[in-house]
């Protein structure tokens, strides 16, 4: 990449650095709702074009004969300062896009596995993913109105997450509630760092 | 967002492929100058006096968007173009010196306590 050359500009040339938190979970669990609740911008959607085999297209020759598909990523933004921006990326909900999770997970400071009590099993895959990659994550239970209320401990048992993984209850539509979720995951990442040091 | 001026690229009938890839002459790999671009790499346009006549409408649109620093993902979203296409376009601009990214050696921010504390304070403050 071209670095800044002094003669080019006399304006402020600072380019911020960025960090990201991944919001993972099954289809329809409220990931984009959560992103939207805390993002300073309406969640944006970006798309990547893929072959059915799940690989990035690297050659257009013969592409018309392949089944192509797009994978959509919804994300939001929180400007921390002029030097630091936090991005919140929702994972694609469909299982066949698992491989995209790797690109999202690389360099993330932590992850939230969002689950809903009606379909707890939809969170298993995500929990497994972050456990295996040793990425700090917490479980956030999206408590929809009218959904059965269980205790956090019951949920923990049902999801089979260890005691050192924080589990919080939240409302993905509520800004303050989602802020608490983010605070939890960042604090968890700090604790993990502390333990490793 | 969907009403953004980049919408003319998207053709419901033709699908999202034909025209975006025409925009980059069928290229799907960024030039070396842009091969380190990730979703969250911040890009920023410089006010250069470079010859813009050779740039496409899309290149110019990116320069306009990036007057303030933006991530690659944001540029792609605002342009309504696939990420790979935007990376190719950005690599052209980086090579020309019209756009800069954060120095690659500093792109991978080390996740340390100091950084996490800043993020924590920032989130608490919103």
TrEMBL record, chain A:
One of its GO terms (molecular function) is GTP binding. InterPro entries: Gliding_Motility_GTPase (IPR052705), Gpn (IPR004130), P-loop_NTPase (IPR027417). The keyword Hydrolase applies. Keywords: GTP-binding, Hydrolase, Nucleotide-binding, Receptor. SUPFAM superfamilies: P-loop containing nucleoside triphosphate hydrolases (SSF52540). Gene3D superfamilies: P-loop containing nucleotide triphosphate hydrolases. It holds the Pfam family ATP_bind_1. The keyword Nucleotide-binding applies. Belongs to the GPN-loop GTPase family. This is Signal recognition particle receptor subunit beta, a GTPase. It comes from Lentzea jiangxiensis. The lineage of its organism: Bacteria, Bacillati, Actinomycetota, Actinomycetes, Pseudonocardiales.
From TrEMBL, chain B:
It comes from the Bacteria. Pfam families: DUF742. This is DUF742 domain-containing protein. It comes from Lentzea jiangxiensis.
């Amino acid at each position: 990449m071209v670095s800044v050359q002094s003669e080019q500009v006399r304006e402020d040339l600072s380019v911020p650095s960025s960090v990201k938190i991944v919001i993972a979970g099954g289809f329809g669990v409220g990931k984009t709702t959560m992103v939207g609740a805390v993002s300073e911008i309406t969640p944006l959607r970006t798309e990547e074009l893929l072959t059915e085999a799940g690989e990035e297209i690297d050659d257009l020759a013969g592409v018309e004969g392949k089944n192509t598909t797009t994978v959509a990523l919804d994300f939001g933004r929180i400007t921390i300062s002029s030097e630091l921006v936090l991005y919140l990326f929702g994972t694609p909900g469909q299982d066949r896009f698992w491989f995209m999770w790797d690109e999202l997970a690389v360099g993330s400071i932590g992850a939230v596995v969002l689950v809903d009590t009606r379909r707890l099993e939809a969170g298993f895959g995500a929990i497994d993913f972050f456990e295996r990659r040793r990425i700090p994550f917490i479980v956030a239970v999206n408590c929809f109105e009218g959904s059965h209320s269980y205790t956090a401990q019951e949920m923990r048992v049902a999801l089979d997450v260890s005691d050192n993984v924080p589990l919080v209850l939240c409302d993905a539509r509520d800004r303050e509630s989602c802020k608490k979720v983010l605070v939890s995951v960042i604090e968890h990442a700090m604790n993990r760092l502390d333990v490793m040091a | 967002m969907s009403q953004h001026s980049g919408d003319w690229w998207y053709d419901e009938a033709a699908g999202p492929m034909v025209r975006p890839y025409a925009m980059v002459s069928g290229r799907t790999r960024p030039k070396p100058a842009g091969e380190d671009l990730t979703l969250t790499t911040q890009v920023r346009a410089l006010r250069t006096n470079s010859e813009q006549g050779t740039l496409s409408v899309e290149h110019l649109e990116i320069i306009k968007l990036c007057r303030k620093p933006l991530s690659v993902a944001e540029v792609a979203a605002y342009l309504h173009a696939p990420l790979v296409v935007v990376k190719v376009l950005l690599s052209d601009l980086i090579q020309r010196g019209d756009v800069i990214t954060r120095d690659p050696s500093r792109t991978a921010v080390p996740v340390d306590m100091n950084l996490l504390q800043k993020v924590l304070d920032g989130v608490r403050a919103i």
